[in-house]
Amino acid sequence: MRKLLILGIVLSGFAFAGTKDDGIFDLKKGCKDPGSFHNQLPPDDIKITCMDERFEWVPTGHDDATIFNKRTVCSKAVTNKPNIKAPSVCEPCDWPGSDYECGGFKEVCKQVEMTFTVTCDQVLAMESVNKFCQGAVLMETAATKEEIMAVKETGRTKKVCGVQDFMNGKPITPISQK
Q1: Is the pTM of this model over 0.85?
Q2: Residue 4 maps to a domain
């Protein structure tokens, strides 16, 4: 009996190999098989909250170059069934670099948080909660030309093009020249 239990635990670990669980498995299971959560009905009030935070460099000088930016998307989901939810998960994702003019630039943080109401059919079609957030927030921010994002300066600045990088004291070369 003990060997069967251990084998079952090991095999259940392989069921999700290669797929990161950001809560999507419980959400899908709650929609497909609500009885496994002691519920007779699947959740009908699923809300996914997405927070997108982008750190970008804004030019303050002359001569063209490019610097790398950073984007992180966080997601979590709640339903009207308290035991069917997705925990808060944050993941970095690709974001294009910023063109800047040689001389210097400053870092700004752009941030937005929004909640989407989804159906079980939409949950069943999702690859992951975070991938849903990445696409949904990107679509919303693009539609508004990022005007819905709160923008604040981080206070970080850099001087480039033959000047020392004041962040770490090393001479730097613009990324486009590397």
Answers
A1: no
A2: no
Half-sphere exposure (CA, 13 Å, Cβ side) for 134? 15
Please state, in angstroms and rounded to a whole number, the distance separating the CA atoms of residues 166 and 178. 19
- Beta strands (DSSP E) in 34-104 are 46-59, 64-67, 70-78, 86-93, 98-101
123-139 burial by CB neighbour count: b if 16+ within 10 A, else e?
A: beebebbbbbbbebbbe
E strand or H helix at 5: helix 2-14
∠161-166-170 over CA atoms, to 5°? 70
Q: Which two tokens stand for residue 16?
A: 């999700």
Answer yes or no: is 5 within a domain: no
Domain total in the chain: 1
Summarised one tens digit per residue, pLDDT across range 43-75 is 889 999 999 999 998 877 665 666 677 889 999
In a domain, 10, yes or no: no
Q: Minimal CA–CA distance to 45: which of 133, 122, 120, 131?
A: 120
Q: Which residue is listed with tokens 């299971």?
A: 29
Q: Give the integer Cα–Cα distance in Å for 19 and 83.
A: 22
Q: Specify the DSSP element, H or E, that contains 112.
A: strand 105-118
Q: How does residue 176 score in pLDDT terms, banded at 50, 70 and 90?
A: very low
